[in-house]
Automatic annotation (TrEMBL), chain A:
GO terms for cellular component: ATP-binding cassette (ABC) transporter complex. Residues 17-215 form the ABC transmembrane type-1 domain. This is Putative glutamate ABC transporter, permease. It is a multi-pass membrane protein. Its main location: membrane. NCBIfam families: HEQRo_perm_3TM. The chain crosses the membrane at residues 12-38, 59-80, 92-112, 150-172, 192-217. Belongs to the binding-protein-dependent transport system permease family. HisMQ subfamily. One of its GO terms (biological process) is amino acid transport.
From TrEMBL, chain B:
One of its GO terms (biological process) is amino acid transport. This is ABC transporter substrate-binding protein. The keyword Secreted does not apply. Belongs to the bacterial solute-binding protein 3 family. It comes from Catellatospora bangladeshensis. Keywords: Signal, Transport. CDD domains: PBP2_GluB.
Length: 224, 286
């Protein structure tokens, strides 16, 4: 364990996990907003919007995340020229956030859509009979009930996203798995110890998230 | 009750991890009276070499065959140990798993751009060095970069967690370091102009520069700013094998097979064969 007694190595480890949290924080917010919009598209009365939502979900849910992130670098940045910052590290961070959000939004969308399906059809019909428009119906009647029933699946998606954030390392974002590779390269004699520390840190971070979301889901559940 | 169950689950998890950790501990096979176990394996034709699979000119896997300078060195060693080089088995290793592979016996000998250093010497035995590389820069032919001091504000690419990447961070912090998981991606980014330079050992860069699809596009700057003695890794206990391999290397310089190995691989990029200083083959523990 004396790998981590070296302050430089300890700093590498801490920075790695801080980067994971930063990636997860930005991506989860973006993915939630984007996922909501996509779910709205998928149940919209406009065929073009439905096709757009379905296309997004099918494309991103069925593509390996590594490819999505690499495309953000070699496609969006190198070829198309989308640049967020002159600073290579800031730029790579946002490219990774774009990839993670686009990918995770597909899963958020499907979770919310399944939540919408749990709301009895009569609710939407009654709202429509009262003269509510599609957006009013969604905003005031359907989504408040649907969101309550998808808290637990959204928790699972958040946990998956946190672990997926390590894939940002393929385009050089200095996150935990890159920090781990660096430590293993420097101290090949302590591979197992380094590996265990990183694995257990993820477990320690994510177990409370799992319990938190389960408790929240129980509190918010719509009892029918 | 809930807590007890949790505790039990935790205990099982810790046990499982513990067992996994034990799995990779080395089983120390006895070295019978001065003879290296490698000789027996060579005679039986069961030698397993750990090599790189993604480094043109050094160790490159195409389909099921491997080729490169490291592979030629492996053949020389197998022959010197009294075996048939055609019967060698090659196993792909990456930088992070070379020590574990040697310790667990998944490979017998590692010839994989393996820099000799003190931390690694605690885990494995190094014969050699059979080549001394140095960190250098690969840049487009028209680039104005002439050395690491020109890197300020420039984008330079290397592999995440590698020693060259670490050296750039520590010694040339004014450079913008782009990290990927493989040099091939760095070279791709260099080809499309996203990064200004790629850095790692000169010998690896020369391998990429000599690839057909990049012919004439890149040049190696030629001002190495580190010294990386490449060793041949084997089990820590196998002192006899270490001395034996050094003898084989000495013989290969004398009979010209070392130069032939170079000419057949990295020599194709036009770089003349290096002179192997046999007086430096002193890594083996006494």
């Amino acid at each position: 364990m004396d790998v981590f007694s070296d302050p430089a190595n300890l700093q590498l480890y801490i920075d790695g996990f801080l980067m994971i949290l930063k990636l997860t924080g930005a991506s989860s917010l973006l993915a939630l907003v984007l996922g909501l919009l996509l779910a709205a598209c998928r149940v919209a009365p406009v065929p073009v919007l439905r096709a757009f939502g379905a296309g997004w979900v099918h494309l991103f849910r069925n593509t390996p995340l590594t490819l999505v992130i690499l495309f953000c670098y070699f496609g969006l940045y190198s070829a198309v020229g989308v640049e967020f910052s002159e600073d290579i590290h800031v730029n790579n961070y946002w490219l990774a956030v774009v990839g993670l959000s686009a990918y995770t939004a597909a899963f958020v969308c499907e979770a919310i859509r399944s939540g919408i399906n749990t709301v009895p059809l009569g609710q939407a019909e009654a709202a429509r009979a009262l003269g509510l428009t599609f957006t009013q119906n969604l905003r005031l009647i359907i989504l408040p009930q649907a969101m309550r029933s998808v808290v637990a699946p959204l928790g699972s998606i958040l946990i998956a996203l946190t672990k997926n954030a390590t894939i940002a390392g393929v385009i050089g974002v200095a996150e935990a798995s890159n920090a781990m590779k660096g430590l293993i390269e420097a101290r090949g004699d302590q591979t197992i110890a380094i590996f265990l520390v990183f694995a257990l840190t993820f477990v320690a971070l994510l177990v409370p998230v799992g319990y938190g979301f389960t408790a929240l889901a129980n509190r918010l559940m719509v009892r029918r | 009750m809930r807590m007890k169950r949790l505790a039990a689950v935790a205990a099982v998890a810790v046990l499982a991890l513990g067992v996994a950790a034990c799995g990779s501990e080395s089983e120390t096979p006895g070295t019978p009276s001065g003879e290296s176990p490698l000789v027996g394996k060579a005679t039986a034709g069961t030698l397993k070499f750990g090599v790189k699979a993604d480094q043109p000119g050094l160790g490159l896997q195409t389909g099921s065959t491997y080729e490169g300078f490291d592979i030629e060195i492996a053949k020389i060693i197998a022959k010197g140990l009294g075996g048939d080089p055609a019967k060698n088995t090659y196993v792909t290793t990456v930088s992070a798993n070379r020590e574990p592979f040697i310790q667990s016996g998944q490979v017998d000998i590692v010839v994989a751009t393996y820099t000799i250093n003190d931390d690694r010497k605690k885990k494995v035995n190094f014969a050699g060095p059979y080549y001394t590389a140095g960190q250098d820069l690969l840049v487009p032919t028209a680039s104005a970069i002439t050395g690491p001091d020109d890197l300020a504000g420039k984008k330079v690419c290397s592999v995440a967690g590698s020693t060259p990447a670490k050296r750039i961070k520590e010694k040339y912090p004014q450079a913008q370091l782009q990290e990927f998981d493989a040099y091939s991606k760095c070279v791709e980014a260099l080809a499309n102009g996203t990064v200004d330079a790629v850095t790692t050992d000169d010998i690896i860069l020369a391998g990429y520069a000599s690839q057909a699809q990049y012919a004439g596009k890149f040049k190696v700057v030629g001002k190495p700013f580190s010294s990386e003695p490449y060793g041949i890794g084997l089990k820590l206990e196998d002192k006899a094998g270490c001395t034996k391999i050094n003898d084989i290397l000495k013989a290969s310089v004398a009979d010209g097979s070392y130069k032939a190995a170079w000419d057949a691989t990295l020599g194709k990029s036009g770089t003349p064969a290096p002179t192997l200083d046999v007086s430096k083959l002193t890594n083996c523990p006494a």
